[in-house]
Design a protein that fits this description.
Layout (H helix, E strand, L loop, with lengths): L9 E5 L4 H12 L3 E6 L2 H14 L5 E5 L5 H15 L4 E4 L14 H33 L6 E7 L10 H21 L5 E7 L5 H9 L1 H5 L4 H11 L10 H12 L10 E4 L8
Parallel strand pairs: 1-2, 1-4, 2-3, 4-5, 5-6, 6-7
Helix pairs in contact: 1-9, 3-4, 4-5
Length: 275
C-alpha cells in the first residue's frame, strides 16, 4: 500500500495509455495526485482514460493525444496541463520500444529514427514542462517534490549485438539523464531513471500471438514467457510486470526519494551481469 499523500500535486506521464505508463498513472491517482497522460493512439488513449476514471471516479485526470516527437503537439499538451491544473510537479518520460537489428542490417534512416525517438521523447517533454517543474521546485523549497523520471533500458549498460541501434541510443540517454541531473540539481529538480529488462507489453503479446508453434501447441502466455525467460537467462525466471516498473518510477518521482538524483534503478529480474 502506498504510504504517501500526493493531494495537490500533478504528475505527467507520457506514453500513459498502456503498459508501464498506464500502471504508473494508476499509482499516482491512488496516492491522490492529479494526473495528465498522453499517447499517440487516440482510441487506446480514450480507453485508458475511461478505465482510469472508472477505477478512480473522483480523479482529476487529463488524457490528451500527443506525439512526443512533435514539438508543437508537446507544447500544446503542456499548455493543456497548465490550463487544467496550473502546475506540474512530476514528469515521467515513458515512450519508445526496442528495434531488433544488427550493425550490418541497420540503415542510416533506421539509425536516425532510433536516435530521434530515444532522445527527443525525453528532450521535448522535458523542455516543455521545465517551467512548471521549476515553479513547483520553488514552491516546494527543497523538499524534493519536483522530479523527472525516465524509462530507460538495461541495454544502456549491457548492450546486445542484435539491438545495436537501441543499445547505442539507450547508452546516450543514460548520459543525457546524468547531465540533466547535474544541471537541474541547483534548482532542486531531481532527474533519475529506471533500467528495465523484459517487461510484459502489447508488443510481447503480439509476438506470442504470432508464434504459430506456440498457438498450434496451445501453449499459454505464462508458459511461453517462462520458456523465453529461461532462454534469455533471466534469474527470476519470468518477464517483469508493468506495475513492478511503475513502482520504481513512483518512488523516484516522489519525495520518497528526495535525496536521490542522477541515479537509476535496475528493474531487470536480475539479468544484469555488471557489478
Amino acid at each position: 500500500m502506498i504510504q504517501i499523500d500526493l493531494t495537490g500535486q500533478v504528475a505527467v506521464v507520457t506514453g500513459g495509455s498502456s503498459g508501464i505508463g498506464f500502471a504508473t498513472a494508476e499509482l499516482f491517482l491512488q496516492a491522490g495526485a492529479s494526473v495528465a497522460i498522453c499517447g499517440r493512439d487516440a482510441g487506446r488513449l480514450a480507453r485508458a482514460g475511461s478505465d482510469l476514471r472508472e477505477r478512480f471516479p473522483q480523479a482529476q485526470l487529463l488524457a490528451a493525444r500527443c506525439d512526443v516527437l512533435d514539438a508543437g503537439e508537446v507544447a500544446a499538451f503542456a499548455g493543456e496541463v497548465q490550463a487544467r491544473f496550473g502546475r506540474a510537479d512530476m514528469l515521467v518520460n515513458n515512450a519508445g520500444q526496442g528495434r531488433v537489428s544488427t550493425f550490418a542490417d541497420t540503415t542510416d534512416e533506421a539509425w536516425r529514427e532510433e536516435l530521434d525517438l530515444k532522445y527527443f521523447s525525453i528532450i521535448r517533454p522535458t523542455r516543455a514542462f521545465l517551467p512548471m517543474l521549476r515553479s513547483a521546485a520553488k514552491q516546494g523549497k527543497g523538499t524534493g517534490n519536483a522530479a523527472i523520471v525516465c524509462v530507460n533500458s538495461l541495454l544502456a549498460l549491457q548492450p546486445e549485438p542484435h539491438m545495436v541501434a537501441t543499445s547505442s541510443a539507450r547508452a546516450g540517454v543514460l548520459s543525457l539523464i546524468k547531465s540533466l541531473a547535474g544541471e537541474l540539481a541547483p534548482e532542486q529538480i531531481r532527474v533519475n531513471s529506471i533500467l528495465i529488462g523484459i517487461v510484459e507489453s502489447g508488443q510481447w503479446r503480439r509476438r506470442y500471438e504470432a508464434d504459430t508453434n506456440a498457438q498450434a501447441a496451445g501453449q499459454s502466455w505464462q508458459d511461453w514467457t517462462s520458456e523465453l525467460a529461461r532462454k534469455k537467462h533471466i534469474p527470476l525466471g519470468r518477464f517483469g510486470r508493468p506495475e513492478e516498473a511503475a513502482q520504481a518510477l513512483f518512488y523516484l518521482a516522489t519525495s520518497l526519494s528526495s535525496y536521490t538524483t542522477g541515479s537509476h534503478i535496475d528493474v531487470s529480474g536480475g539479468v544484469a551481469r555488471h557489478v
